[in-house]
Amino acid sequence: MTEEIEFILDSTKESMEGSIEHLGKAFVNIRAGKASPAMLGSVFVDYYGSATPLSQVSKISIPDARTITLQPFEKNMLQAIEKAIMIANLGFNPMNNGDVIIISVPPLTEERRRELAKQAKAEAEDAKIGVRNARKDANTDIKKLEKDGTSEDVCKSAEDEVQNLTNAYIKKIDELLAEKEIEIMKV
Predict the structure, then answer these.
(1) Is residue 80 over pLDDT 80?
(2) What is the pTM of this model?
């Protein structure tokens, strides 16, 4: 195989790996039971005009399996943090006692579990789209190389390799989704 094709395959694999990593991060934000600081990973607070991750403006602690407490580093950030949690639409109702924000993590209802499973499926589908886009880009690059004189056999072999990578990553996404669904539906 030529250097160009090796490069295309490497960058395709890297791109597909990125889709898997993104899916892993998305799955962390889909809660499945007990309280975890990761549940608030997608919350950004308006901190003096810039969107700042919640973990950088407050201390997040988990006193028990159903409670998250947030201790802002600055007292005047209580309202902004509370507002950011509501805007993030995580299904939490933050309570502000003047010093800390307390979030009671409600037990998941059957209906909510189904919603979370749907959300997980949507995230997995997005990851599959990312993998397929990487395949499309790679095949486009391989076709250009073929037009520029690379042998047809080498290009066909490279396209087969790209398809094998695609199949492997799609299978990995399906496996991750199956694990997450089991985690979500477990009472």
Answers:
(1) yes
(2) 0.72
